[in-house]
Amino acid sequence: MEDGEETVGIISEMNKNPDRLIVDHYTLDERWEKHLRPYVSRIFVIDDLADRVERCWDRSIPCFS
C-alpha cells in the first residue's frame, strides 16, 4: 500500500481533493482504490485484463471488460 500512501500525500499537498483520478496500472487493485476513495470524488480505472472485480465508481460511465 506504499503507492496509496504516496498518492494520498500528493493529494494532501494540493490543499483540495481532486474531482477525478484516472488510474491505468495493473498492480493497483480494489484495495488501493478503496484506500484513495476518501480523497477523490471519482476514480476511473482503465483495465483491459477483464479478470478482476468490477471497479467503476461512477455508474454514469459504462464499465467495459
State the gist of this model.
The protein is of the alpha+beta class and 65 residues long. 29% of the residues lie in helices and 12% in strands.
Note the topology.
Blueprint: H1 2-13, E1 20-23, H2 30-36, E2 42-45
Parallel strand pairs: 1-2
Account of the protein in words:
There is one protein chain. By secondary structure, the chain is α+β, with helices and mostly antiparallel strands. The chain has one domain. The protein contains two helices and two strands. Strands 1-2 form a two-stranded parallel sheet. Helix 1 runs parallel beside helix 2.
Task: Quickly count the helices.
Answer: 2
Question: CA-to-CA gap between the ends?
Answer: 25 Å
Sheet of most strands: 2 strands, parallel
Q: Helix coverage percent of residues? A: 25-40%
The overall number of domains is: 1
Pairing-aware structural class of the strands and helices?
alpha+beta
Give descriptors for this structure.
65 residues, alpha+beta, two-stranded parallel sheet
